[in-house]
Amino acid sequence: MGLTKIQIVESIHSQTDFTKTRSLEIVETLLEVIKSTLASGEDVMVSGFGKFSVKEKNERKGRNPATGDDMMLELRKVVTFKCSGKMRDRINSL
């Protein structure tokens, strides 16, 4: 399992003088800022970490995996993430 929001809150709490409540408020506020920025169509770029972008996916033919029936997938928007060079180097050096 990956890192959860509560684990991030615990980490902030243990590395700072913030209470758990304050740490949770900080994480919630950060996530709200990211969500509202992406919802408005703007990118979110965090130096040394990466860039979140909203991309449009065209309508395309797909298949229902449960029934095998063909179907059309509608035009939709998805969030993509591209990590920075520094992050890529850090991950690959492990």
Strand content: 25-35%
How would you sum up the major sheet?
Answer: 3 strands, antiparallel
The geometry reads as: elongated
CATH-scheme architecture of the largest domain: Irregular
Query: Treating each run of at least 4 consecutive H or I residues as one helix, how many helices?
Result: 3
Given as residue ranges, the uncertain stretches (5+ residues, pLDDT < 50) are none
Strand order of the largest sheet: 1-2-5
**CATH homologous superfamily (4th level) name of the largest domain:** IHF-like DNA-binding proteins
**Number of spatially distinct domains:** 2
The rounded distance between the terminal residues' Cα atoms is 19 Å
The CATH class name of the largest domain reads: Few Secondary Structures
Order of helices and strands: HHEEEEEH
Radius of gyration computed on alpha carbons:
18 Å
Which structural category do the helix and sheet elements fall into? alpha+beta
Total beta strands? 5
What is the average per-residue confidence, as pLDDT, rounded to a whole number?
95
CATH topology of the largest domain: HU Protein, Chain A
How much helix, percentage-wise, in residues? 40-55%
In short:
The protein is 41% helix and 29% strand. The chain is of the alpha+beta class and 94 residues long. It has two domains: 1-41; 43-94, HU Protein, Chain A, CATH 4.10.520.10.
